[in-house]
Fold these 2 entries.
Entry 1:
Amino acid sequence: MSVSARAGIVVTGTEVLTGRIQDRNGPWIADRLLELGVDLAHITICRDRPADIEAQLRFLADQRVDLIVTTGGLGPTADDMTVEVVARFFGRELILDVELEDRIAAILKSLMRRNPVFDLGNFDSIRAANRKQAMIPAGSQVIDPVGTAPGLVVAGTPVVMVLPGPPRELQPMWHKAIQTSAAQEAIAGRTTYRQETIRMFGLPESGLAETLRAAEQAIPGFDALEITTCLRRGEIEMVTRYEPDAAEVYTQLTRQLRDRHGRQVFSEDGSRVDDLVAQLLGGRRIATAESCTAGMLAARLTDRPGSSDYMAGGVVAYSNEAKAHLLGVDEALIETHGAVSEPVADAMAAGALRRFDADTAVAITGIAGPGGGTADKPVGTVCFTVLLSGNAPASQSLRLPGNRSDIRERSTTVAMHLLRRALSDSPA
Amino acid sequence: MSVSARAGIVVTGTEVLTGRIQDRNGPWIADRLLELGVDLAHITICRDRPADIEAQLRFLADQRVDLIVTTGGLGPTADDMTVEVVARFFGRELILDVELEDRIAAILKSLMRRNPVFDLGNFDSIRAANRKQAMIPAGSQVIDPVGTAPGLVVAGTPVVMVLPGPPRELQPMWHKAIQTSAAQEAIAGRTTYRQETIRMFGLPESGLAETLRAAEQAIPGFDALEITTCLRRGEIEMVTRYEPDAAEVYTQLTRQLRDRHGRQVFSEDGSRVDDLVAQLLGGRRIATAESCTAGMLAARLTDRPGSSDYMAGGVVAYSNEAKAHLLGVDEALIETHGAVSEPVADAMAAGALRRFDADTAVAITGIAGPGGGTADKPVGTVCFTVLLSGNAPASQSLRLPGNRSDIRERSTTVAMHLLRRALSDSPA
């Protein structure tokens, strides 16, 4: 694949490196670069430690990236050193930008007026602390602060874009920074890509691997496709990136996938099972009856705005009494078959349909563990029923892998897919 | 702080680099290294692209880390190449571990037997695909797979630990890998630290910042403490790391925190509100009634093993009909005060207590948005009631910030804290 503009991201901050704070900037910038057709090669994370930051800048320069974006380390406190390190990296001196210092001072004044926590008395000392933020490497272009920290675009090889850590500051500043002549030159060689996502359910990753190997043999120009597959909660996500002239190659691949795994492929346009279920539920009223997932399915069905159009409600029937009293499950049924059984799942679904006056119901009952497993019903055994009014209940029992939370998580995903299949098979 | 064992983490995976999947392994391993007193210098992320992975390994070796941990790229698909690259990095050849191949085959067989949703089609081709996973660099130590991918510890300078991407596989395998002689030698120089976590709720981060500034002035030897604070869902987590001889300094800090923020500090031993609530619920029976959170609180209360001892169940009363029919909320009450009001929250809690024959109930009703807000009840308005049988209901209305999912998430956390306070104030 011809790639002629490469970038790297340097994320600084002890709280990010140590995982106290999840980095949201790397992924966000990665998306922007992807949209631009710039190849992101590396993201590197380190503490606010000058030697480490400089080492990462040199590493990325050695990797011949055209653009480096740094995030974080622009605050007024002594441990924020990114600008100083970038200046040293280029061998340039730091110069006080007086006009910028005034802009920062103005921002601070209004901040302090709004924020009682600051003590308006020692404004000069605060301003002094912030003078540091007005010291910039010679010949760099300033990006106006959204908070108090200005950003920088430093021309050179590679071009270095310096942005603050807080996402709400970084994001608007990125859009200005990428428009600067220096940044535009850096990414001039970018290629436009297409990116397509196919989602599959109920297919082992190795089964897909086999199909891809076969496709590699059968389809000329196959390596024009950059394919990544990712297994998540029983779903496989396959993302393919290619240049426009390889579109026909991709079409052939999708054809082979459909031939081999038609029933497992549930989305070719990137839409998720949640999107599909939401569409299929249009004009319907759904109710849930959950035991081991204890509300996770109901919560997932109401993730999106407007879900009140189809979501009636649900019962978390964690105890057998609750199954009996709230869902009207016959206690004899529980005694005969056990609480984790398809007959009980059927009865739970029927109860939910009735109690919520719904036309669609899903029931889940299972053993999430670690306790409660038996020889014939080990931990991970989960029974599902999807009931559409006027149809016979569709039940299925599975044994799901993983620990308690994996099993609960995976159960909600399985339920979403059983619901999707039932709704697509039945007339609206 | 004297540190004599350094580590780096290489996270591979296009889906992680491009932000389609959030990396959970880097932060998790960072925590483990922190506990061990190993200094984590760099986390680097790249695609499953051999040249990039090898460049990152060389970079970390040049930075003289003692241990490199790689995550991901161990799957059967052709785009998983970490082991191959690690072998090249050390200049060693890949050898088929026949006995390991059989173990992987056995795992696959049982996986497929357990999953009717998986099409059982040609097992041999699948086994062939997985042969790749049994190819290991000469002289490396195998860590048994939790999924299908084995891990490796490769002795050398630095020592390289190769672990799979899925957290539920990586985490147990880490604990074995770190015990290997090679890994132990790599981290032999580590310093032992203490790490303490204090959690606060209902305190603005700037308030804590003030207190820390004051403590820095007042407490001698304060900079022996490495403090990182993190605001999450209305809770502040403060993690302090120090060498044993600074224990007295830390004690003084905790004293000042208690003096200033006694009511907000709810945990000094790292335990979470979920742990405290679980303890306080011992011997009780709890039921939930949820509208906008739609089961998220019930799901959270049942996160942990053994929760069936106290969890009776819950109702997701998303529609007004459900509030009336399943929880017996008087429809006149809804008409008079609106579905999002303290009287309705009280009635929902009372209904849940009655329906599930419980002694403890929590109700949540609110406007998660983006629609449904009004002038006097804007999006983010959420009403909570905690009801302990024999006590008057404790109700509270809040206006929570953020988008739909922030508001739902934050609401469950607020409910957990209201529950904690109610249960701690009342005699068991």
Entry 2:
Amino acid sequence: MHIQQFAQVTTSFAAQQQELQALHLIPSHYQSLSLAELSQAVFAKLFPETSSTVTMQAALGRYLVTNTQNLAAFLPTANWDLARFNTVALQLLQFEVGTDFQLDQSAQFITQVGLNLLMTPLKTPQDFLQHFYTLLTVHTKFGITYLDDLTNRGYFKATQNFAHPLFFNGKAVAVFDPHQAIHEVVYVESDLDTDHDGKRDLLAATIIRPRETANGLTLPVLYTASPYYRGTNDVDADLHNVNRPFATTVPAAIPAEPLAPTPAPRAIHGTSQKTEVSCDEPNFYSLNEYLLPRGFINVFAGGIGTRDSEGVRTCGSPAETASTTAIIEWLHGDRVAFTNKTDGIAIKAWWCNGKIGMTGKSYLGTLALAAATTGVPGLKTVVAEAAISSWYDYYRDQGAVIAPVDCQGEDADVLAKLCFTRQKDAADYQQVKPTFDQVLQHLSAGQDRNTGDYNAFWDARNYRKHLDQVKASVILVHGLNDWNVKLRNPATFWQGLHHTHVTHKLMLHQGKHIYMNNMPSIDFTDMMNLWLTQELFGVTNQATNTLPQVLIQDNVQPETWLTPTDWNHLDNPQQHYGLSAHQLIHPTQRPNEIAQFQDDGGQHFLETQQNVTDWEQQLFAQTGIVAQQSLAFKTPPIAKELIIDGAAHLQLNVAVDQPHALLSAMLVDYGVARRLTPDPTVIERQGYQLGYHWLRTDLVEFTQAAPTPFKMITKGHLDLENTIDSATITPIVPNQDFTVHLDLQPMRYRLPAGHQLGLIIYATDPGMTLRTCQQTQYQINLAASQLNIPFQK
Amino acid sequence: MHIQQFAQVTTSFAAQQQELQALHLIPSHYQSLSLAELSQAVFAKLFPETSSTVTMQAALGRYLVTNTQNLAAFLPTANWDLARFNTVALQLLQFEVGTDFQLDQSAQFITQVGLNLLMTPLKTPQDFLQHFYTLLTVHTKFGITYLDDLTNRGYFKATQNFAHPLFFNGKAVAVFDPHQAIHEVVYVESDLDTDHDGKRDLLAATIIRPRETANGLTLPVLYTASPYYRGTNDVDADLHNVNRPFATTVPAAIPAEPLAPTPAPRAIHGTSQKTEVSCDEPNFYSLNEYLLPRGFINVFAGGIGTRDSEGVRTCGSPAETASTTAIIEWLHGDRVAFTNKTDGIAIKAWWCNGKIGMTGKSYLGTLALAAATTGVPGLKTVVAEAAISSWYDYYRDQGAVIAPVDCQGEDADVLAKLCFTRQKDAADYQQVKPTFDQVLQHLSAGQDRNTGDYNAFWDARNYRKHLDQVKASVILVHGLNDWNVKLRNPATFWQGLHHTHVTHKLMLHQGKHIYMNNMPSIDFTDMMNLWLTQELFGVTNQATNTLPQVLIQDNVQPETWLTPTDWNHLDNPQQHYGLSAHQLIHPTQRPNEIAQFQDDGGQHFLETQQNVTDWEQQLFAQTGIVAQQSLAFKTPPIAKELIIDGAAHLQLNVAVDQPHALLSAMLVDYGVARRLTPDPTVIERQGYQLGYHWLRTDLVEFTQAAPTPFKMITKGHLDLENTIDSATITPIVPNQDFTVHLDLQPMRYRLPAGHQLGLIIYATDPGMTLRTCQQTQYQINLAASQLNIPFQK
């Protein structure tokens, strides 16, 4: 077990005393108390489940201070020393004596696990307060601070009269009752008319705010723009057929997306502070739900074309971004919202302190990035998890049509359909369907699945063009094994942020397309709390300097988080490899040789109804027919570990015998090892608790799986007709060689000493590319080919 | 999509009107209203999210009545007919026009899905009321009644002054606010002293009761005895080694379990109505949490040896049963509980109406069965899911040591350790550890992993011996693919219940060791509500006659639930098969032949680090080395489907060349088919909602998987030294033949026409049996062997 915390803030003793008093954890006359008296007073507070002295004493009696004394017996004299205090502290943190640690070995255990308990001597009441203060900031075995554990056991229910909001160690404390929260819906009037009905699109926004805001308290907002918020449609029948030949004709010019003029705003017939619609939607994002009882108002909006809103879905378009920022403009006081869609009664976000943060994963994080690139006033920070920064990099790769993993046949039009949840209300859908069908046609044409090329459609969906507009601070979070939103998305955005003036931070975990907020090895939720408390409450809490600039989970050692200075830095040194028969060699030793393989366009894969996992295993192992459909090269076992950091680049001199063809390449780690599990293991079902009688979610961690012989490091795909760039077609002359540059997806991967680095060159990637069933002969001129790997010094 | 509801109760029109009035869904002067007026009044109630006429009208405007009219426009004249009403009804039930059904085809869709909407003409206000009443009882697309959907959207929050409790169509309605519930802990004094400390074991009981009980309302209790309630211990290191030879020595006589005399009861120094400890434990059983807002108090207790209780774990013993029933005795007023463990203040369950039901799955359901077999007063009914009825049938099979699936090396002592959560409190554990270690030794000796035989230890853990004591009604629920708690457990108990006078019902689903309460194809939760409302509230609601006696999910057709008259009936007719080379044949045609195979005691399995799934696939397919370690026999493709119903029986004449050996057999369904998924598919994440702003869980269903060539039907295991019975050792004379009788686990399986029935005879079952690495030669005299299969006429 290893626990790393980055959100513990160094606090002066004076501030510690003030904070402990604000929590009512020490009595007002604490300075006149002896060590024993102070200890008794403090420990008496730690069992909010008990409501009598007898049961409180019974609770104390469950903890051992020494082998011969329990805490209840010890406290009246309380001759603390460091070991005794930490022995009790560990038990309070739910580590078990005998199972997790030995009674006389608290110090060793603390070091081994990495707990940031105070290790200074403990003799005086002042010492005790400092140790106790620190204990409140340290994580339990179950991934939360001890203060959060106290909170979850009812501390703020049992004792009353706390400040609202309340902060401790720089972070907001859960003093608001989420069950008393007000749930309401308003309709924000955008400037858009995406459904071409001559009226500005109204956008439903759902607000969940602490009851205390009803009495004049203003609080910041965590806003999540989620096209999935009101459900999704089944689009299985709408997926594109990927089992078809390459297109042979270049499409006509992409028609411009139809834009309706902005209609006049609705007349305002009055104002109100009272909404007319409430809601009960599923909780679906535990970070927001964690922060709600801590005083962050939750706002959710589906955006144009989602159920109860107006407009249509346009997948990644500027209109979608405007529909996202419209909510912020209303929250910030810069836009009108109504209590309903018809009678013109305006309502203000009078409970909002004007500071808005955005959160969300995948499409939700994408819209947070999109909003950030507008510089919309009021948006102070975004936490974008697994976010797309350019939709081209989601559905395409260097001219090739590439599906996100497990989403074969999906494209922008399909996703628009998936989220067009106005479809769920029959009478509403009946009105808008003809318009949406037209918009879908434009999406389908614009995305251009024939050439796969970058065009005006995709350019309009590239948020990175507007990086210079970013005013909000940005935290990017991404999984290094995310093949849904591939790593080029955060990598390129991240490097772009270096050219802005905003604070930006990066957190990379070892997961796929998942959250990282319920892993006990890292205090992600605390970090977000610290960050958002600074950015949205304006509390001076050293968050910017306390949180690491870059945090990366190691891929070899479980529960290990590193803080390098950067990731994917363009100046990283490069290791160059030449290609020889089955080997990666020094570039100067490249043989004058042509290697070749024959791709069948996925024919065998389709005929044998193989699954992608099995196919991939055969590719790695170079067994079966797949071995003939690829070329594999390996280094000898490496003497010293290599940390790949950035985008590997493959330069190939290639000839094919067909006028259309694609090329794929992957890097593979060869070497039997107990790698991390692809999906995190559930450590404790429902073990991660978000508040008192509030939601729980599973506690998970990447653990070491059974030994495997290999693992993919990264891969990339390319349309061979895109030798210049993704926007330009260069026709292939069959059997004539040419040079191509293939960028693999950026990565951070530690290849341990003794392992071999492998490169596999192939073509059809049945889980992601078209499966044309075209027979194509590939010839690679090894003398003119090279692999470049950026690495961390 | 197919939906079957069994908990809709036929109700007179007079009662329907009364119930609708009690729900405030129709106004008091409803009898004077025209059809249009009545419709308008009723529909105005159906949108509790809206709090203004404008937003309510907007909600109505989302539904289509006909292709040209929405509901808001329709209602002022409201010329209903059946098709119009059902078109709206389907939308209210969240079926989507265009996606799920066509606007002009409601009747076909209703029939196809199996919705029990009223199909009589709709012309008068009276007709309307009857149709609307029925609609409230019909399931939405998301597995709940329309009334529950209304409830979940805040109906009982928006309107006030309902009766508490409130019943509709025979079932309790969610009018209690679970967030206002009182959470408290008391300590029940048992007659036990399992920790031998000279004091009666106190047992912590957690109570979660609606706030309204504080003012004198008494309600029934749903009690779940869960040894896992306060956590579990990690016992990986305590698992028994199964990679070892058969034991060669018969152990000495099993020592009797140590029983301490019952100490005197604690002195009572006073009484109180106020508890002194509250709690916040995870919600873990959605049936209880569904029923809490419906007026069923939830009580949880860990029992002896669990955290905060006294005593030690004894796994299945009579003491454990007594610790389970002690809570019921307190709830029923027959036993003392205290507010804490020390000062003798007694407290009564003054909020309980004296009627207790038990619920739970696995160990939890087991303790419900255990309690039922005591006849303890107050216990009116048990719903036992995947329950053990004799612990011998959990850890043993006909003399062989057999692990529950995925639990190799587990046994009664390991489970006792797993649940001995007093270990989590260091000071408490320090006191009791020496005693528990002694008890563990007795458990280890008593369970006797050497012979695997039935003895006094297991006999004390056979609840079926006390079937004649059962006074509570019993509902057994079990998965037909549960290889954790194998089907002999419910099958034998079920047949035993036929000899009692209690009402008993059986529900078998196609899952493994799972719940069946979140599958939209069946209204399990409604059935439980109906049942518990009758049994615990005493409401006359026809539950006994309305609910099927036996409900079985079909294994071929998804979403299909059958109601045969019985299961595993001992008089079921038998099909007899003889064994020939690779064939199952007519018994008269048995060849005079010896078939043989060589078992390696799992050596190859262990050496190649194979996983059980792969091993099993090879066994079914008879490929690899496994084919030589088994004998396989198949029928020709069967002309007519065969419904196996009960326990298949294999009679074998066998000789082995070793003095110790085991034997296994399985039945296999051969035939390429799209079978049901082994685990249910998540249909809608968090789609199953238990109440207003209350918990949600996933909605799941068994769907058709990709085609597979075979599936195991059932299996069984036998120690060859147990030819007479499980309690008697008959030494094997190597190489001398003898006859054995192997009972396979009872099953219900529909083998479709065209498939082949397969029998595989083998020995080591690496996921369940010992893996001795012993080389054993098996000879089967086919002329003297026979397979008997009970089937459903």
